[in-house]
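BUG: 3D viewer hangs when loading the predicted structure for this chain

Environment: internal workstation, default settings.
Expected: structure renders.
Actual: progress bar stalls at 90%.

Input used:
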Amino acid sequence: MSCKSLIADDHPLFRVALRQAVSACFDGDIAESADLHQTLEQLQQDDTIELVFLDVNMPGNDGLYGLSQIRLKHPDVLVVMVSAIEQPVMIQKALQLGAVGFIPKSSSLDVIQHAIDTILDGQSWVPEHLHSQFDQVVDSEQSAFAKNIEQLTPQQLVVLKMMANGLLNKQIAYELGIKETTIKQHGSAILKKLGLNNRTQAGVLFKQLMNQ
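Structure tokens produced before the viewer hung:
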């Protein structure tokens, strides 16, 4: 099987280990990036990339924000989250936002290869020992919010992140180099798509969903 992949991680040694595992699973070029900005640039420049291994704590990622950015801009790209920290709640959130799996950095090469094979067969993959730790009751409000996030444009997601961080419309406009009236229009569109009444509620839900 041939598949071009991108390993997005700021730790060179882990990139080497993951490259070894990926190479054993399929033929194809393997690109690398060390932060979210580089990752998004490579995806923008190369539309042949089909699979991304995304480090949760990579610079610029800010929790699950990077995952949301990739899913909005490149919906056909498969995203596998990787992390040294195994948090069931975070993994559940990542799956809600469209990740196809989670691979702990502590996994052996055999386990990583099995995970990749499973994902390429069209199934999601999470370590067996974490299944029992998943919350049985999923927050319905948060699940609906994660689903509605998919309706936002990449620019609207950026605006929502800034709103959640407490920036005023004029501050967001200054940071993005656009008119304040445009930010107000984005804000109205965001609330409508999310089915919410105010930006405070949107900000709280956004932070709950994105933070680990």
